[in-house]
Predict the 3D structure of the following.
Amino acid sequence: VPNTEFLSDLRAAVGEQAVLSGDRLRDRAYDESVGEVRAAVLVRPRSTAEVSHVLRLCHARGQAVVPHGGLTGLVYGASATENELILSLEAMNRIESVDVAGRTLRVEAGVTLQRTQEEAERHDLLFPLDLGGRGTATIGGNISTNAGGVRVVRYGMMRNLVLGLEAVLADGTVLTSLNRVLKNNTGYDLKQLFIGSEGTLGIVTRADLRLVSRPRSFNTAFVACRDFPTVIRLLGHVDSHLAGQLGAFEVLWPEFYEITTTPPATQSPPLPYGHAVYVLMESLGAEPEADASRLEQTLA
Amino acid sequence: VPNTEFLSDLRAAVGEQAVLSGDRLRDRAYDESVGEVRAAVLVRPRSTAEVSHVLRLCHARGQAVVPHGGLTGLVYGASATENELILSLEAMNRIESVDVAGRTLRVEAGVTLQRTQEEAERHDLLFPLDLGGRGTATIGGNISTNAGGVRVVRYGMMRNLVLGLEAVLADGTVLTSLNRVLKNNTGYDLKQLFIGSEGTLGIVTRADLRLVSRPRSFNTAFVACRDFPTVIRLLGHVDSHLAGQLGAFEVLWPEFYEITTTPPATQSPPLPYGHAVYVLMESLGAEPEADASRLEQTLA
């Protein structure tokens, strides 16, 4: 249990409602990937300045901190012990600005991937990162884990989509390398260190993201392969013949395919069981009919 | 002039022929971007171990070092004074291996961009970075400057094409993060620090590069625009309608266009003078005829 003075310092820093301990912390929704939320206290700051203030207090006291994003990770990176403080970015959930001509978006770290995608779509643009946890996963978590997702073959990993970011170090120092220029080579690119380092070097608070043209056609194909070498050849074939339109190429093992297409799953199997590997692929293009027939011809 | 003991240590490290000083250094080809080559001595090691050995000797002596790649840069990053030692990567010019299925290429830093492109082409693949100095510019220089080039809109900057690298620190320590896995998120991605930092943190000696599908159609268009906002709209339009096929979009100011199309230049102007901005664009696709008509329709 944190001492009274520390708790009152935290409350002074972020406000009464943003500091959860005791019953209020125990009542917090249980999360499968983290297990029961255990921590000395949970703090949810609303701004970079508040994150900095909280970390400064923790640093002075030697208080261990575990950052929380959307908690969709499956590797227990967000697990905390009774002695640790959880710093959740959930209250930093503002989309700050969009530059439609420059195709960039500035968001706070607690904005979900899905809201980011929707904001881009509103301006007829695409934020290309996509993964199953989109409704809960946050941009801060996508950055801290350097997420890949289903469209990594076309648009690259999160690292390729982050133009700039702001992070707070353990002692409260705010590092700002917010940047909206795609081809920026000034100085050392220190922001790269915060991408994929799971919050161990600092807590990401805001980011400038890169948007791209929104595809006008989305076509999918589901293919069964006799063995894995065939999958490799298929990837080379479709990547070459779709010429930049291949958006996703997801390989499914037969066990996974069977379990997701037999009750209690509600999906029925589009192809018979018994093949060695299955592939779900997507082409992203500009002309719905021409692109559909191009995908069909490629697979003929 | 470096003292005899240091010179003989360098010769012991890399061999007589790899240490140039005095007349042999003065006779070296003059380079426009660097100006007359001035240095205490020039050393051209043939391996990472030799680079390490040379840097260790320089470190012990407090000898300043200037790394040399292809010398195509225009910002005097390779200029040296009479007191500095030039470490040229020119003798580290081996293409070490190609993984055709995994689409990676391992090269030494002194390999030129053009040889890298040709090696990829030999395996029906593409190394997508491209710029005018390709015949002279080296991979080490492309990495150290985080080169962009004419196809940056499609394939990203050099950072996006480097999967792993090896670098030698000033004290001779060899750091190896050679890696051929595209989606590698293990540990801190320290190699990022060497990309774009102009050799100030260490000398890049080898790299694993990413290859992509080789396009089967190359179509170009040259367009005159009435003003710059039109250029921005044109980029959005073609990027959206070419759906991943837009390979290059280079903007030319009228002064540049005129000077490159009037004698002594041998080119004749494809479009009349007098427009505010010109754009040279390229589409990279899979079906030569269909892609050509798609580009024409997009611009109609």
